[in-house]
Amino acid sequence: MVKLILIFILCVVSTNLAWAKNQLNVITALSSHDPMYKGLERFKLLVESKTDQQVEIRLFVGSQLGNDEDILEQAMAGTNVAVLVDGGRLSTYQREIGILGAPYLLQDMSQLDKLVESKLFQSWADKLQNKNHLKVLAFNWWQGSRHLLTNKAIDQPEDLAGVRMRTVGAPIWIESIKAMGATPTPLSFTEVYSGLQQKVLDAAEAQYDAIYGARLYEVTSHITKTSHIQLISGLVTSADWFDSLPPQQQSIIIESAAIAGRFATHIVQSNESQIEQELRQQGLTINKINLAPFVEATTSVYETLGYSELREQVYEVLRDE
């Protein structure tokens, strides 16, 4: 009888382990209304249908299981988690990949596709995987162009002097905002609304979807279309968990992540003009300015962070037909 009970317990444990092995928890700080979440829903649908439900994808919004950095640490430890994260945050683990968040690096989506499909980018992803056990599933998730969000008109970098501006706590973002003339203030995005409302912050910078979704139009008055950073993100998971899967399931997950990234990007592109119109209706003044002074002001970022040579390598990839 005892032997039968032990066999039963071992069967239950084995079943639970197998279930966990074939389950991926995807965590994002974004809301369920964000285009990136729609992309994650598409990713879930594709993976589960193509694997005949052998791989389950569970989605969690609002950083329910931890912030991006927490999830990356869990993934490095082998946990079956994934997170949609930008290159700036990943630069902590793999320096070169941080250039994806550099100011005015890419001009359009065709350049993004060319870069993330290149051997140069793959070398960065390989280093990230070999050193930190983080697997890039796809890095073609474009969340939009980042613009300045202030309570006064901004025409040139000098207008940002003394302005406390929220940004992401990654070196490339901090140096970019500093070079533009503002005082970078790293803070969780979930705290931006209250920070602006309580005057802890003077300004922020974000893409249209994030501005509208977080209702930041209620606590600011101006958007300056600087497009200083293209918010390029990737779906990143545990390399150890990924390697534990059969090759066929690995291929399905990789392919689905790329398809979902293109899907989410298309939604962002399609929504931009409508969101801009709605932001104007909410009372925001939206200014299109001469970008040349901002481009010039941020060229120093590449030298400051040691990215000058890497930028030339990127340009070489983009010039290569």
TrEMBL record:
Q: Does the keyword DNA-binding apply?
A: no
Q: According to the UniProt entry, where is the signal peptide?
A: 1-20
User: Keywords of this protein's UniProt record, alphabetized?
Assistant: Signal
Q: Which InterPro entries does the record match to this protein?
A: DctP_fam, TRAP_DctP, TRAP_DctP_sf
The superkingdom of the source organism is Bacteria
Q: Name one Pfam family in it.
A: DctP
* Record-linked PANTHER family: C4-DICARBOXYLATE-BINDING PROTEIN, PTHR33376
Report what the protein is called.
Answer: C4-dicarboxylate TRAP transporter substrate-binding protein
Organism in which the protein naturally occurs: Catenovulum sediminis
